[in-house]
TrEMBL record, chain A:
This is IBH1-like N-terminal domain-containing protein. Keywords: Transcription, Transcription regulation. Residues 5-67 form the IBH1-like N-terminal domain. GO terms for biological process: regulation of DNA-templated transcription. Pfam families: IBH1_N (PF26576). It comes from Nelumbo nucifera (Sacred lotus).
Automatic annotation (TrEMBL), chain B:
The gene is LOC104592777. It comes from Nelumbo nucifera. It is found in: Nucleus. Residues 124-133, 144-159 have a biased composition (Basic and acidic residues). This is Transcription factor bHLH137-like isoform X1. Keywords: Nucleus, Transcription, Transcription regulation. Residues 71-87 have a biased composition (Polar residues). Residues 71-165 are annotated as: Disordered. PANTHER family: BHLH TRANSCRIPTION FACTOR, STEROL REGULATORY ELEMENT-BINDING PROTEIN. Residues 174-224 form the BHLH domain. InterPro entries: bHLH_dom (IPR011598), bHLH_ZIP_TF (IPR024097), HLH_DNA-bd_sf (IPR036638). One of its GO terms (molecular function) is protein dimerization activity. SUPFAM superfamilies: HLH, helix-loop-helix DNA-binding domain (SSF47459).
Length: 187, 347
C-alpha cells in the first residue's frame, strides 16, 4: 500500500538513477537533448513507479524500450524488474492492438452495412451531434494519454484518472528538485 | 439528490465528491483494470483521506469487485439499529421517508450478506434510483412498496451469493431487455468515473455535459504535460548539479547564456507556473563552484519532497506540510559545502 509521499519518493529515486546514468553518458549534450533526457527519465520513473499495473505506464515503457537511444535508460531505471516489465508491456501492447484492430474492422464492416440500409436523414438530431462531439473529444484524449489508442471508453477514463494523478506527482517532484537547486544556487 | 445517491457506495467516493479532497481514485479503479490483466495485486495507490477510513477497506475494493466495507460493519450495524427503529415508526405513519430508510436497510443488509458476488454495488445503486422513482408515486402505496422491497431484498440476498451475475432492476417505464440493461450499467459506470474526474480536475464542479467534461480533462492533461516539459527544460538549463551526482564539479562550467522561450501557456496554467518564469530567469546567471554532493538517498528524497510540498495547493494530502518551512529557512542559511545528511536530520 503506497502513500502519495512514498510514491513520490520512489519516483524521485528512480529519476535520480536515470539522471545519473544518462548524464554520465554524455556531458556535452545540448540543452534540448538534456531536456529530453531529463523528461524521458522522469517519465520512465513515473511509469515504473506504477509497476506496470496500468496500461499507460506499460505503454510508456514499451515505447521507450523500442527506441534504441533510451534502452539503456530503461534498463537502468527499471532495474531488476526490467525484463519482466518490458515483456509485460510489449505483450499487453500487442494484444491490445490486436483487439483494437479487430474491433475496428468489425465496426467498419457494420457501419458500412448500416449506411447501405438507411437513407440519409434529412434533419440531424441533437443527440447525434452530441455523440459526435463526445467521440471527437474521446479521440483527442486517446491521443494524449499514452497507450490510449487501444482502449475502450471506460478503461480510457480510468487510465486518465491514474495518469493525471501520476503527472501531478511527477510535477511535484520535479518542482521540488528545481526549487531546491535554485535555493542552493542562490547561496 | 446527489447526497442521497452517493451516501451509500463507499466513503472513498463520498470524499471524492468533496472539493479539494485527497485523491483516492487509484484504489478504486485498480479492480476495474484488473479485469483483463490477470495480475491484480492487493497493493494499490490510496491516499490518506482526511476522515479516518480503515485502510483494509481499500484492500476489499481491490480484491473483489464488491463495495463491501466489512471493516465498517460496526458502524453499519449501529446505523442499522437506528434505522430499524425509525423504520418501524415510519411504516406505521406511512410516511414517504420510510422509502429512504428501507432502501438504506436493504443496502446494508446486502452489504453484510453478499460476499463473493460482484453485483451488490450495481444492485444497490439501482435500488437507490428505484427508490427515487418510487418517491414519485403516491404516498398511499409507499408503505406497501417498502414492504415489498424488503421481501425482494431478502430473496435476492439468498440468490446473489451463488450466482455472481450483475442484477439490475429495470426502472419503471424503461426497456427491460438485456441489451439496454447492460448498456445502462455501462453508462452508469462511465458516469461514475466521470464524476471522479470532476473531483480531480479543478474547476469542473459545475460542468454537467460529457463533452464539456472531456474538454476540461483534455485541457488539464495538456497543461500538466506542458508543465512537465517546462520543468524539465528548467532543470536542463538551470543546473549542472543533477549531472554530476557523486562527482566533483568543475570550477566553472562554461554555460552558454540561455535564451529561453517563455513557458507554453495554456488556458489552465496554474498560478504557480506563472511565477516560475521569473525564478527561471534568475537562475540563468552564472553559478559558483560546488563541491561534491553525495548521491541522493531516500532520506534526502523525503526531505526534498516535503520541502516542496508546502507551496503546492494540489489535492494531495499534506500531512507534514506545516513542519518544513523551518527546514527551508535553515536551508537558506545552509552552507552549500556541508553535507546533505545534516539537512535531512531535521526531519
Amino acid at each position: 500500500m503506497a502513500s502519495p509521499s512514498s510514491f513520490k519518493q520512489e519516483l524521485l529515486k528512480k529519476w535520480v538513477l536515470g539522471l545519473q546514468s544518462c548524464c554520465s553518458m554524455a556531458k556535452d549534450m545540448g540543452i534540448s537533448e538534456r531536456k529530453k533526457a531529463i523528461k524521458l527519465s522522469a517519465d520512465l520513473a513515473m511509469a515504473s513507479a506504477r509497476d506496470g499495473r496500468t496500461c499507460w505506464s506499460r505503454a510508456v515503457i514499451a515505447n521507450a524500450s523500442k527506441q534504441n537511444e533510451s534502452k539503456i535508460l530503461v534498463q537502468k531505471i527499471l532495474g531488476s524488474e526490467c525484463e519482466r516489465l518490458v515483456k509485460a508491456s510489449s505483450i499487453g501492447f500487442s494484444s491490445c492492438n490486436k483487439r483494437f484492430t479487430s474491433k475496428r474492422i468489425l465496426r467498419r464492416s457494420c457501419s458500412s452495412l448500416r449506411r447501405i440500409r438507411r437513407s440519409a436523414p434529412k434533419r440531424v438530431q441533437a443527440s447525434s451531434i452530441a455523440k459526435r462531439m463526445v467521440k471527437k473529444r474521446t479521440q483527442l484524449l486517446k491521443g494524449l494519454v499514452p497507450g490510449g489508442e487501444s482502449m475502450d471508453e471506460f478503461s480510457l477514463i480510468e487510465e486518465t484518472l491514474d495518469y493525471i494523478i501520476s503527472l501531478r506527482a511527477q510535477i511535484d517532484v520535479m518542482r521540488c528538485l528545481a526549487d531546491a537547486s535554485e535555493r542552493l544556487k542562490s547561496q | 439528490m446527489a447526497a442521497f445517491s452517493y451516501q451509500q457506495p463507499t466513503f472513498l467516493l463520498d470524499s471524492a465528491m468533496l472539493p479539494n479532497s485527497p485523491v483516492k481514485m487509484p484504489g478504486l479503479f485498480e479492480f476495474g483494470l484488473g479485469l483483463g490483466l490477470g495480475d491484480i495485486n492487493a497493493t494499490c495507490f490510496p491516499y490518506f483521506p482526511p476522515q479516518p477510513l480503515p485502510e483494509s477497506s481499500i484492500d476489499n475494493l481491490d480484491t473483489s469487485k464488491n463495495v463491501i466495507l466489512s471493516d465498517n460493519e460496526p458502524s453499519m450495524t449501529q446505523k442499522q439499529r437506528s434505522y430499524s427503529s425509525s423504520l418501524v415508526v415510519g411504516l406505521e405513519s406511512g410516511d414517504q421517508v420510510t422509502q429512504d430508510e428501507t432502501q438504506k436497510m436493504d443496502k446494508r443488509k446486502k452489504k453484510k450478506n453478499g460476499d463473493g458476488s460482484c453485483s451488490n454495488f450495481a444492485e444497490s445503486s439501482k435500488d437507490v434510483r428505484e427508490g427515487k422513482s418510487k418517491r414519485q408515486r403516491k404516498c398511499s402505496s409507499a408503505s406497501k412498496d417498502a414492504e415489498e422491497d424488503k421481501r425482494r431484498a431478502d430473496k435476492k440476498v439468498g440468490e446473489e451469493a451463488p450466482t455472481g451475475y450483475i442484477h439490475v432492476r429495470a426502472r419503471r417505464g424503461q426497456a427491460t431487455d438485456s441489451h439496454s440493461l447492460a448498456e445502462r450499467v455501462r453508462r452508469e459506470k462511465i458516469s461514475e468515473r466521470m464524476k471522479m474526474l470532476q473531483g480531480l480536475v479543478p474547476g469542473c464542479d459545475k460542468i454537467t455535459g460529457k463533452a464539456h467534461m472531456l474538454d476540461e480533462i483534455i485541457n488539464y492533461v495538456r497543461s500538466l504535460q506542458s508543465q512537465v516539459e517546462f520543468l524539465s527544460m528548467k532543470l536542463a538549463s538551470a543546473s549542472p548539479i543533477f549531472y554530476d551526482f557523486g562527482a566533483d564539479l568543475d570550477a566553472s562550467l562554461p554555460k552558454p547564456p540561455v535564451n529561453l522561450a517563455p513557458p507554453p501557456t495554456t488556458q489552465s496554467t496554474q498560478a504557480s507556473c506563472a511565477s516560475e518564469p521569473t525564478a527561471f530567469m534568475d537562475s540563468t546567471t552564472s553559478f559558483s563552484t560546488r563541491n561534491n554532493y553525495p548521491i541522493l538517498d531516500s532520506s534526502i528524497a523525503a526531505g526534498f519532497l516535503e520541502q516542496g510540498q508546502r507551496p503546492n495547493a494540489d489535492a494531495f494530502p499534506q500531512k507534514n506540510g506545516n513542519l518544513l518551512w523551518d527546514v527551508e529557512n535553515q536551508i537558506r542559511s545552509f552552507n552549500h559545502q556541508s553535507n546533505f545528511n545534516t539537512f535531512c536530520s531535521f526531519q
